[in-house]
Amino acid sequence: MRYAKVVPDIPTRAIDGCFDYAIPDALAGSCDVGCTVLVSFAHRLAVGYVVDVVSELAEGVNPLRVLPVERVLAEPAFDRVGARLAQWMAAEYAAPASVCLRLMLAPGQTTRVHKDEAGEWRLAVDRTKAVDDRWAQLSVTGRGFVPRRNASRQRRVVEALAAGPMRVAELSAMVPGAGSVVTALAKRGLVEVEHRRRIRGVGEPTSLSSASAPRPDHLTDGQLAALDAIARATDAGCGDVVLVDGVTGSGKTEVYLDAIERVRERGRSAIVLVPEISLTAQTVGRFRSRFGDDVAILHSRLSSGERFDQWDLARSGRVHVVVGARSALFAPLSNVGLVIVDEEHEGSYKQDQAPRYHAREAAAELARLRGAALVLGSATPSLESLERCRAGSWRGVRWTRVSMPERPGGSRLPSVRIIDMRSTFSPKGGSVFSSPLRDALLDRAEKREKSVLLLNRRGFASFLMCRECGCVPTCPHCSTALTYHERTHSLACHTCGSAWPVRAYPDPSTKCPNCGSRYLAQYGVGTQRVEDELRMLLPEDVDVIRMDADTTATKGAHTRLLEQFDASECAVLVGTQMIAKGLDFPEVTLVGVVNADTTLKLPDFRAAERTYNLLEQVAGRAGRGERPGEVIIQTYWATHPAISAVATHDRSSYLGYELEQRDEAYYPPYSRLANLTLAGLSERAVRERASALAVKIRARVEGMEGEWEVLGPAECVRSKVKDRYRRHIVVKAPVDAELGPLLDECARALPACKGVTLAIDVDAYDM
Ligand code: ADP
Ligand code: ZN
Ligand code: ZN
Predict the structure, then answer these.
(1) Domain Helicase ATP-binding spans what residues (predicted)?
(2) Model's pTM, two decimal places?
């Protein structure tokens, strides 16, 4: 008898772990690791995932009490390593194992079941179904002739097919009603019809010139050293990590391409993670131009059918390279030899809902489990990674840093100027551009060169502020500042989506909710405002292209805008954070930052790190070609090390400052930090629950080795979201502490409490 170890998909904190089920003979051939199955659990039917198949029950389990697997609902989606990765995530991030396993399922697979007409249990609507295309081709043996009567459509179809096989859908575009004509011709043996599997989501080829950068003749010393270290790590096959610490434009992508080529030659495959935002046609194009059809692309802008096809390319072994966002880590590739995480410092690698995993950490675990190597790349590596490289190892795995301080082909890092905006203050408001930035923009327009303008608006969009009392209208459900939308004259909450009209701003009837003053003024600038000012400033023949959440809302808009910028003879690209990363346009000679310090003011210990990273990244967009680049940074806080270090290209001065701050306050990379958020409609219930949990945690960590700090409970920065009150507890622990299991244990130890939810965020990024 064989037994399946099944994790039931019942996401409650009380039920976790796996249970043994017998595999009946009828299912012996189909019930394997990675399958979704139907089992009976606590007297009810439940969907579950098979994480292992064994031939003996665990000791002490009575075989007579073991229930059978009822049905196999879906084919294997993961292997034993995938199952172990999910179980590792469950423990590390205090998340239910079933929720982690869901990450491994085929895209589009639901977790609900229903009974079909035949009375069989099936997974509810599966939108992933593979799609076949009908292709028509003239039959070689067909001997019929096309009759004159009613002949014109038939003849046109036959004529079109003379050139070779063609999709029936395409034929229909040329000959209306071709579908039925083909069927008729096929009946008479004139045409053969074949069903071919269609692969969705490959995407349109891009015209971006840099998407297919030619392969360089010579690699730089830095690139060779990096490839060498990666080759050693790959051959060692035990999860060794190589951090490629290369300035912007130093050729990191080129290193990834060569490293992948090497593992492919050895018959192994590779996974490349790129932040969602920089997963542009440009990045994808470079992988495609090197590896052609051997690449699958996975990201959230694909439909679930498209995602399924790309995922299935990996599962069926038809591709050996998967490029994608965070979730590509769980692609069912076999024989993975290399995992690459580009821009490893990116905060977006931390998932903000359960399981709250960090893709870099999960990638490290995956590489270890698969006997592969992990490559991390960044121009601004995370403090965590730098610290592990300095120590030489982390969790028993070797960490090596390779530095690539130069750009190839003699292109130099841009010169950076800081403009102190306090000296340009004008009480009348004035322009968003200082005169040096204005002059530089005009100069580029005259020279017909390209510029990039960054508007740093993370956390601070445009909002209304009362000029008398300083109050900012906030959402009554969420306590977040409302964002002002110029186009629709409305105030919107970006947390819950509520919106209120502001009648004809600045309408005197709009009053401050706090003091009744009529002087509400717009504070903070939006991309729209920058675009408008640019159009007034620059000659008409300069293209102004705006890229932000609004202009990229539709599918493909991102690529179109970049293509427009690429094709333009002289243009300015204005945008938010999304333009800071990964763009490689050699003709850009000017990068301007409108407001460098907004991120510095966030109530967050990573504020300076984020600001430094962003500025360094966006500065790296300038001067990637032959002409030198210039960067102009406007700020009200010119002396902050995170800003001044960008100007001097001296990372160590910033790092020294940052590490000292972190050390003093016991923050990562010197500690691990978890954020536990409790939320509920009753303020009292949340308060009581939070206190009880804090007491529990304090008692648990009492006397533990190393430095432990339990802070709070306190109100969250956003103390109310969608009418739910929020309090949180912050736990700081030694870097090697097993924080997840400990917090999970504390949470489980509390009696159940209806109406208050708990979110445990281990290694929290946003608080
Ligand atoms: P990064 O990923 O570090 O920002 P890229 O790999 O995008 O850098 O390289 C920047 C530019 O330099 C690209 O246009 C790339 O084609 C080019 N490049 C990379 N390596 C070399 C090399 N060894 N010689 C010449 N050009 C190179
Ligand atoms: Zn007021
Ligand atoms: Zn709201």
Answers:
(1) 233-399
(2) 0.84
